[in-house]
Automatic annotation (TrEMBL):
The chain crosses the membrane at residues 12-36. It comes from the Bacteria. Keywords: Membrane, Transmembrane, Transmembrane helix. This is Pseudopilin GspJ. It comes from Pirellulimonas nuda.
């Protein structure tokens, strides 16, 4: 029997890859691994940026809540008019002291007689970069230190009575209670009587109160006040303004990083600053004066109104 063999069976069977194929495979693997690493890095960068944004927004939300809680508890009042009471007391007096003094030639006036101190009305006062408001604080109930957390025990004790709270920016020139410089948004609180007394002496009233940094990350602040129709950059200094505005607009510029570079005026650090805005409505600012109060019986069925 004759066998026929094909000439194609004479070929050599390959047992592996050639050198060029190995080099190409390794190169493609390195490129794919690099692209995968780059994609993972970009994803982590975006996740970190999102996390930082959320953390910063949470921080600013907490700051806004602290400020809003204070201002919504603002107390209002005006100077007590004692003219009518004085006239009534003078009319009912048994004798007139002034007429007796004028009849007596020996009566003299004490040159060291001090003028009566007028206690100003209270409400809210401020400008575009700082704001103060009077708060009515209830006397805290007695709590033993053992029932408080360690952080609460280190916090300054709450004040009672009528206190003055001030929010402003600190640049590090003022020192806090722990000896560290104060930066960012600072909250100061002092008793009203201490504030008025130190004002008469020309001293720093807030040095006798409590001062703490609310948010060192805040590098800018602007405040606007509104009475419902007009927006002001100052409140409490213009004649005819109410004790409290209807609402205040608080704008905060918060840094993400690079505090020293931002203070030095680095343009690159300015891109790391985000602006946040909040409008705080003050319920006490909606109370109409007595002479402008509307009689409910005088309203008609067709009258409509809107509220905030």
């Amino acid at each position: 029997m004759m066998r026929f063999t094909s000439k194609h069976q004479a070929g050599v069977v390959r047992s592996g890859f050639t050198l060029i194929e190995v080099v190409l495979a390794v190169g493609l693997s390195v490129i794919l691994l690099g692209l995968l690493t780059m994609a993972i890095d970009l994803h982590l960068i975006r996740v970190d940026a999102s996390r930082s944004t959320v953390e910063q927004a949470t921080l600013v939300r907490g700051v806004f809540r602290i400020v809003a809680d204070d201002f919504r508890q603002a107390a209002i009042g005006s100077i007590q008019d004692t003219a009518e009471a004085s006239e009534l007391a003078e009319a009912s007096a048994a004798f007139d002291v002034d007429s007796i003094d004028q009849a007596d030639p020996a009566a003299t006036t004490d040159p060291l007689e001090a003028e009566a101190v007028v206690r100003p009305g209270f409400g809210m006062m401020g400008d575009a970069v700082s704001v103060m408001a009077y708060l009515e604080r209830e006397r805290p109930s007695p709590i033993t230190p053992q029932t408080l957390s360690p952080m609460a025990q280190q916090a300054p004790p709450p004040m009672a009575g009528l206190t003055l709270v001030r929010y402003a920016l600190a640049d590090g020139s003022q020192m806090g209670g722990d000896g560290q410089p104060l930066r960012g948004l600072v909250r100061q609180e002092v008793n009203r009587d201490v504030y008025l007394y130190q004002q008469q002496l020309g001293g720093d009233a807030f040095a006798y109160g409590t001062t703490w940094s609310v948010a060192p990350e805040v590098v800018g602040m602007s405040i606007a006040y509104t009475d419902g129709t007009t927006t002001y950059t100052q409140w409490g200094t213009t004649e005819g303004q109410a004790p409290l505005p209807v609402a205040i607009e608080l704008n905060l510029a918060v840094r993400t990083d690079g505090l020293h570079a931002a203070q030095a005026g680095d343009p690159a650090a300015a891109a790391d600053i985000r602006n946040y805005r909040m409008v705080i409505a003050l319920p006490a600012g909606f109370v109409a004066p007595v002479e402008e109060a509307v009689d409910p019986a005088a309203t008609t069925s067709g009258a409509t109104g809107s509220g905030v």
